[in-house]
Target: Miro-like protein
Amino acid sequence: MDVDDYDRHFRLLICGGSGTGKSTILSRFSFEGGGSEGKSILKLDGEIIRIDVRKKDNWQREYVSEFDAVIAVFASDDLKSFEYAVEIVRSVQNCDFLPVVIIENKIDLIDNYNFSNKEIIEDAITKARVRMYR
Model:
């Protein structure tokens, strides 16, 4: 499938602190690219959709015009990275409408998940009115 032959174009930004697994998520989305960006093509309901994915460590208001959606990523074993992800969500929500979700990453890499943080995380997610995926 030709990367320049598509019906719809979608631009996705992956944001989060250092060491949260942004590059791993990027590599799962992409068949082409590397480093801080990638491309993916999928066919849905007969339409060919091109998805350009980029990763950045932080969110900036100027990104509103550059992207169609934002993923804020945090690592399960790093509560500070969660707090930063929530900051990203709040910043995105204070801009024009831009869909945003949070992904809890690296949950499979820790032996003893800190369930005391789970309640803190879920309360903050509820207050932020955002979806979280694990």
